[in-house]
Design a protein that fits this description.
By secondary structure, the chain is mostly helical.
Length: 219
Amino acid sequence: CEQAHPMEMEKSLINFIKKGDFARAISEANDYFDWLTQYNQGEIINLQTKVFEMIVHIEDEVQCLGIQSGSFKYRGDYLKEIISYTENEKIKIWFLEKVSEICRNTIINKEEQSNSIIIKAKSYIDQNYHKGISLDDVSREVDISPYYFSKLFKEETGENFIYYLTNIRIEKAKKLLTNEALSIKEIGIQVGYSDPNYFSRIFKKNVGQTPTEYKEGIF
């Protein structure tokens, strides 16, 4: 049980870093370092070694997320730095700074990945709105689960997938309704609605008029 305790602390610290939970990660790092000093028994080299190993381990773990936090060159610098500190408090400050840096990099990376996913998803929707695309189709395109995509899309855009898709279709339909040569049925098909009655209902729900009424108001 005593050996499992630090392992659980290490796992918890890494999980909070991966989630980008800065406050909890720093709190866990503090607790972890306090545990190290409690069981170190005054051997500074043991503390230096364990802290260095932990930072390297954290970096290896976050690299699985595609985050390049450190390299062999930087780790050589880490080793020089940690060896130069012979007081517990200075080692702790160094350790917390490195955890903070890795956590910040993780947060930035997650934000960049989220932005990239949403940009790709919007591009796919814009190019395929006229087809019978679904949330599952788009989530496959951006290579994440439908549940996570739905949650991420709402967080990043402020609206759900169906609302976004419908709004694009309605705006495209409005433009097409300015073309007298196109029938309501043809316009519905061009924006992704094969059933003209359903298209009419969706259009009225969003615009307040049927496609026919909207068209009559133009001409």
